[in-house]
């Protein structure tokens, strides 16, 4: 019988919650990826979603990763508490490269001090559109017992895209 890893269990929690929200028409899932990287012997799962409205809205991508040391440590029984990293990216396209500092501060308040928030702005030529990417990364490993933290991240992500959609 297959013994699921911490990664597998956290993935099921995240994926199930997001798809339940999609079924309830709270969000729309736009992409999903489930990868095993044989070069680094790591696992990665990501799911992307947006608000179910007609206007273009920001898109969120939540990525769950388990690196080699965590995965092998768990499988070999050498780690007592294996965990995963979580990265969140929020993408939006704007007509301007300007950064709203108040908006960035509001996003920091939503996510709190446990997440490192970075903003990247790139220009698309010749359309002269600007791609804003808000990147958040957990400063701690998410353990199997921390499934509720993943649910909170989905809620924070939905709050973030609602805030960005109000601009």
UniProtKB/TrEMBL annotation:
It comes from the Bacteria. This is Uncharacterized protein.
